[in-house]
DNA sequence: CCGCTCTGCTTGCCTATCTC
DNA sequence: GAGATAGGCAAGCAGAGCGG
């Protein structure tokens, strides 16, 4: 049935997939450890096995982990490596899957010293599917890191992983953050469905963080939620533990208006003590399961009419909303539990409303406002007219550093009577305030020197803005 | 229908290193 | 020095299926 005669091995169609089998040097029949979606992939796999038998590099597929004599082969050495590493359960599980499913079946029996760049490239281009770029990247990255260890230990002369540009995987969709009006509709839902989503949308909590909240973490008097742990899971096991990054442990302010709803929800919870989970699972003791939260979220996004948003997009919404209030980057980092300003930037998105406001403000500014921006230099802050052609990348960093955000046309100027040196509180500037702050309009003594292409791009953008 | 578990796979976060 | 790229790890998404 769908089987074909071949000089080496056989390929058989099974439920829409292709199964490869062969007789090894041990005269025993062996199956490929996984099915192939394309016949050509199965043929390539058999070709690899055939070559390894011809070169007397083939060994029977290894089932038992960690046998000392396996350490010469890639599979044995890789298993040994992963066993030695300190990994979280989830990562260990994932690495094991990549190794056993994608790496070991094709390359596992090969001795480390016989692994060559050409063979790795063939494996990368034939076994790893380009349709799954993330999995492809991860499998390759794992193999490269294992072979780097082998190189460090002197087991191989040089790491044979030389494929270039493996790490480029980009976000494939734009996120339109939820608006305050949409988030407020969550209060119409049953509390167990609406409140977890509300904490994500207003406070920027991730799914695992929401599920890991305990009653003691919610201080409704202070209006603060304390993020101290998160829930993860592996096959058949739920893990409740500290945040992966130190910055993830944080206190986040709760907007005042949902607090009465939270208080009412907490008061109605069964008595399980302050260590009890805020959103318990069906047994009342363990944390709400990931799937239960997803179910609740499915209901919630239907009610607010935003079925395009994922749960994690709620974190982006919180960051974007906070950003639009003019919150400094340091506050946004603390709120979101990020360690870098770059991550804050990544979480900022323009909303429809903010885009409209930006366009309006630009329209008002045209003809009577010369745009300026401020930057830091070693001696403090200098002021650079946009027309000096400062690099776009510098502007983006400035925006993060100075609290100027996507979706707003606000510029920072000294507060009333204040200096522009960072020691004084600052307000978002109106066009009038900008005009009345002559210090901001002066040309910097040491203007940035951008590259030609970026300078031309900046100039073309500015030409449309300037009078 | 609801609430849940299991599982395979994808996406995101953060930091280090390289390149221009 | 800034931006780009790579590396390592963690978390999220969603289909299948089960039981009440």
TrEMBL record:
Region (Disordered): 408-467
Cited SUPFAM superfamilies: DNA breaking-rejoining enzymes
Organism encoding this protein: Propioniciclava sinopodophylli
Residue span, Tyr recombinase domain: 173-363
Superkingdom of this protein's organism: Bacteria
The family this protein is said to belong to: Belongs to the 'phage' integrase family.
UniProt cross-references to InterPro entries, sorted A to Z: CB (IPR044068), DNA_brk_join_enz (IPR011010), Integrase-like_cat_sf (IPR013762), Integrase_catalytic (IPR002104), Integrase_recombinase_N (IPR010998), Phage_L5_Integrase_N (IPR058717), Tyrosine_recombinase_XerCD (IPR050090)
PROSITE patterns xrefs: CB, TYR_RECOMBINASE
Protein name: Site-specific integrase
Core-binding (CB) domain: residues covered: 72-151
Keywords: DNA recombination, DNA-binding
GO molecular function per UniProt: DNA binding
Biological process terms in GO annotation: DNA integration; DNA recombination
